[in-house]
Design brief:
single chain, mainly alpha, 2 helices, SAM-dependent_MTases_sf
Length: 51
């Protein structure tokens, strides 16, 4: 990406405004405590990371 700065600014602004049509199933997080390390590989808008 030759213009990464513009991409970051765009997705930082647009990502929060997206409406999702599928539910977010967080059952797999039920056993994780606040100190658990989770790698969010950056595939999507960060919905799971926000939780």
């Amino acid at each position: 990406m030759k213009d990464l700065g513009n991409q970051v600014a765009y997705w930082d602004g647009v990502g929060a405004t997206k409406t999702f049509t599928h539910p977010l199933n967080l059952d797999w997080l039920a056993g994780a405590n606040r100190n658990t390390r989770i790698l969010d590989y950056g595939c999507g808008y960060g919905r799971v990371m926000a939780e």
